[in-house]
Amino acid sequence: MSSSTPGASAGLDPAVAARLKRTADGLVPAIAQQYDTGEVLMMGWMDDEALHRTLTTGRCTYWSRSRGEYWVKGDTSGHVQHVRSVALDCDGDTLLVKVDQVGAACHTGARTCFDEDVLLPAS
Predict the structure, then answer these.
(1) Residue range 26-38, pLDDT digits in tens
(2) How far is CA 113 from the centre of its chain?
(3) Model confidence over 60-105: pLDDT tens digits?
(4) What is the pTM of this model?
(5) Which end of the chain is more exposed for a tag (fewer CB within 10 A), N or C?
């Protein structure tokens, strides 16, 4: 299913939708974290519909800003994210999605998107 712009979902619980603080584009950052190790895997964008799909299917659905469409993690790569829980932060502007990651989370083939460029603070 594709669309040119992200949007609202008739299916998302209105109480959850009311708590979300979205960007001007209607998006909320979603951090994917390995549920059992705490490893931070990646960050993607969700709108109301992507969050609704994530909650109802048990698979992470994101909004691709570059492609302008929804994508379910793993549909083409086989690197699936099985959702264990979803939490909204205290400000309502970030989601934490705890997943059981199958294979690589990063589009480069790395386990996580945060392995390559570690920036160290000045000492």
Answers:
(1) 999 999 999 999 9
(2) 13
(3) 999 999 999 999 999 989 999 999 999 999 999 999 999 999 999 9
(4) 0.88
(5) C
Give me 20's structure tokens: 């979300």
Of 66, 50, 69, 54, residue with least CA distance to 4: 69
Long-range contacts formed by 38-44: CB under 8 A, 24+ apart? 39/111, 39/112, 40/112, 40/114, 41/81, 41/99, 41/101, 41/105, 41/106, 41/111, 41/112, 41/113, 41/114, 42/105, 42/106, 42/112, 42/113, 42/114, 43/113, 44/73
In a 13 Å sphere around the CA of 58, the CA atoms on its Cβ side amount to: 3
Nearest-angstrom CA–CA distance, 23 and 45:
10
